[in-house]
Amino acid sequence: MNAQTERLALTGAAGAIEAARDAASLQGGTAPRGVAIIAHPHPLFGGTMDNKVVQTLARAFNQCGWTTVRFNFRGVGASAGAHDEGCGELQDLLAVVQQVAPQGPIALAGFSFGAFVTSHALAALWGEREVAQAVLVGTAASRFTVAPVPPEAHLRTLVLHGEQDDTVPLSAVLDWARPQILPVTVVPGGGHFFHGQLTLLKNLVVRHLQSGP
Asked: Does the record carry Hydrolase as a key word (predicted)?
């Protein structure tokens, strides 16, 4: 992502986990707000931690004072193992959290398949850890069973979706969000990968992070 990106070699249930850490953008003497862990889109369709939406999320969190960690799910890049339809990937995400942020505030973010996995990580960690922020982009609600967002986490959670997403229809995300009365921020004309709208995506995430609890 930039010259200061630190490559990490972590360990999960399936073996090695390849990860990358970027430092927060801080004013002199200011401590980071915490560590944000960001999950990538579907491994079987080319998803990696270097996906442009994932990198855009990382830049937004960095700008708002968060250290960010992106990682490759099992079977992607230098990460060991094989695709596990979300179950093993949840364990990967939780293993990353335990190793890069064993204590202190954390944030969770994910794109597409990564948002689905992140939803389950949020459900698993809520009440055990201080999850200060959550961002779910292009949430794969038409393809997977996305976990409900804990009611107490609603104000800390940004759900972003493109109006014209042809991979995950907006209607599927609304069907998931409606019973929870969970707001969804819709980008007019936006597709699944937000081509030509990554700056807008970043600005919406920054606004959420700056206004959150």
From this structure: yes
The DSSP string of 93-139 is HHHHHHHH-SSS-EEEEEETHHHHHHHHHHHHHBTTB-EEEEEEES-
Q: Let me know: does 186 contact 213? Beta carbons within 8 Å.
A: no
What is the tally of structural domains in the chain?
1
Residue 3's pLDDT is 60
Q: Are 160 and 201 in contact (CB under 8 A)?
A: yes
Distance CA 113, CA 146 (A): 10
Query: First-to-last CA distance in the chain?
Result: 28
Residues 6+ apart with CB under 8 A from 28: none
> Tokens 């393809």 belong to which residue?
143
Which range of residues forms the domain containing residue 75? Answer: 5-24+32-211
The pLDDT assigned to 172 comes to: 98
b (16+ CB within 10 A) / e for 19-42: bbbbebeeeeeeebbbbbbbbbbb
Separation of alpha carbons 193 and 187, rounded Å? 11
pLDDT on residue 212: 64
Mean pLDDT by 10 residues, the chain (213 residues): 83 98 88 96 97 98 97 98 98 98 98 98 96 98 97 97 98 98 98 98 98 71
CATH code of residue 9: 3.40.50.1820
Residues found in the chain: 213
